[in-house]
Amino acid sequence: MVQISVLFFAASLFASAFASPVKRTVAQVEADLADISSRVTTLDNNINAFPNSGGSLAAALGIHTAATNLATALDKGTTDVNATPAFSEADGKTILNTVQGFEPSILDALKAIVAKKPAFDALPLGGVSGLVKQDLGNLKTSTDNLGSALIAKSPADLVSQATTIKNNIDAGFVPAQAAYASA
């Protein structure tokens, strides 16, 4: 009897592993984007609050935590967008407006992280710039994945605007990643 139960349980796990992915809704994507927006603001604020000299390791680790939390939110957003049907015109516009709303904060954070590199390098415990380099790589990948997913689900007439936002953010990563390339 126990063998039959174990076999049934194993077969159920196997079947669920190959079940179709859970469908998501535009409302879930909008909630994800609201979370991303909040996390972008937190990261931007943490970076801008870090002093140009005399910063603490705790504050630097706060930036790392904010970057990690943002990457996780971006990845969740990508998963949900990929599991959502193509956006209607109205939904596509709402989503585009939401992303346009936090685009400036992303670009500001990327610009500010370049300016803060000397302060990170001056911290008594080395390796913070290497951590920033790693965070930038993770954020770039997560941001690109979400941008591509959003573009793929956008109505045809919004694709060029969505692509422009993605390209602007990609361009913001270039100097940030270059600044930490040797870290």
From TrEMBL:
Extent of the signal sequence: 1-19
Coiled-coil region list: none
InterPro entries named among the record's database cross-references: Cell_wall_mannoprotein_1
Keyword terms of this UniProt record: Signal
Keyword Signal: yes
Keyword flag Signal: yes
Official protein name in the record: Hydrophobic surface binding protein
Originating organism: Hohenbuehelia grisea
